[in-house]
Amino acid sequence: MSQNEERLKRVQKENAKVSVELESHKSEVLKVIQGTSPFSRELLGELIEKSEKQVQKTGAEIEGIEKTTADLAGAIARANGQYHQVLDWSELGGISWISRSA
Questions:
Q1: What pTM did the predictor assign?
Q2: Mean pLDDT, the chain, as a whole number?
Q3: Please, where are the H alpha helices in 1-102?
Q4: What is the Cα 89 distance to its own chain's centre?
């Protein structure tokens, strides 16, 4: 597994965890309104804000990793195409020193 794949899985896992926390905090709002929550309005508001920022941060990080992975895959595909083009030219010119194993 590549470093990008490992990092993506880690960040996705973190994003899922923070999303669950956010939903848990949001579900506590009704209890605050009813006066049955151990949290104060201010504390719950801060927790929700913090969780929302974490979800946004990890979401942006996921997008960045996915873009980097796609860019790398594209670069590899282009390089592979260029390599095979050189091989084709070498065969036309009778050059045998280039290996076709790649």
A1: 0.71
A2: 88
A3: 3-27, 29-34, 41-93
A4: 39
